[in-house]
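Tokens help. Consider this.
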Amino acid sequence: MLINLTLKRALGFHGEFLAATCSQINVPVRNHGDSNVPKWQRPLNGSWKFNCDGAFNPSDKSAAFAVLVRDENGSVVKINHGRIRVSSALAAEAWAIRIDVSMALAWGKKDAVIESDCQSSVNMLQPRSGLKNWTIQAFLDDIISFSANSNFVFSWCNRQANRCANWIACNSRLGVGIPLAPCSLPVELCSLIRLDL
């Protein structure tokens, strides 16, 4: 009980820190016409979408997570990423979803869309899912516990629709410094964000 309270407080402080250091980047809306390429989908008005991804290299066991939060206009609201120590790509993906949920709760977004391109993780988090994977069960249990009093939607998306979070995770795994403030994102990432809109 004390551990859960301490964890919730720490996540709240982390959220406050990120909120204080981040500002919005407004990206102009683009019309894609009849493109058949899967695109990032905007959340409902007033909602935020938390796209996440994990990156893992089995040869050197390096791993990272990324979270990219956007509003209904496609504007980047928050960004988070970091290197982590996990044993598999699936664990990196589950860790990223866990961070998504923690961030959403820290900002009081109980109706957020949590989106990942890891279909197996998303499937395990669906209501009444009987699917289990003991290699990541501790992460899944945390996600389910943290989400108990929320209306989170855990959604799968195609890798192409999650390319911004993937770019952040892959670069973070390689140790590339990516600013947490949306107003100072790398040009490459801004280009990917524009392609989504």
Notes: Strands lie at 48-57, 62-71, 76-84, 113-116, 153-156. The two ends are 43 Å apart (CA to CA).
